[in-house]
Amino acid sequence: MPEISTASLPDIVFMLLFFFMTATTMKDSDLMIENRLPKADQTAKLHKKSYIMYIYAGKPKSNHAQQLGAADRIQLNDKISSVADLRAFVITERAQRNSEDEKYLTASLKIDKDVRMGLVQDIKTELRKVEQLKVNYTTNQGNPVSK
After folding, report:
1. Which of 41, 57, 62, 108 could make an SS bond with 136 (beta carbons 3.0 to 4.6 A apart)?
2. For 28-32, what is the mean pLDDT?
3. E-state strands within 59-114
4. What are phi and psi of 4, to 5 degrees?
5. Backbone dihedral region of 131: left (phi > 0), alpha (psi from -120 to 50 degrees) or beta?
């Protein structure tokens, strides 16, 4: 009985490897805060994710609460930041894109539903100071329930 030829096995392995390398996306950031988004019945999807910079706000997760406290926090990329750090964050995000794409750059606010509105207002004020006027509020699809 003749043996099975394994000559094409390396080609198949490299083809699978190439497929998974191109089809897999990397995780953007590791959230250190709670991010339970509110629900909204009127939503629209943003299509170009390359034009979006994410700003997260919420209470620290239980495994980070001891070092960060229980107050609402802002997370930019992978680090906890303050409202004063927003200016440098926006300028850095703009610098990473070419000048033509800069006009499409949108600040997407992923705010936990229990965050105090004063922090949201502080974020919006700081974004206005740096002239980042395209702002999006990320929500989940569904009927909002009033308390």
Report:
1. 108
2. 77
3. 73-76, 79-81, 106-111
4. -80, 135
5. left
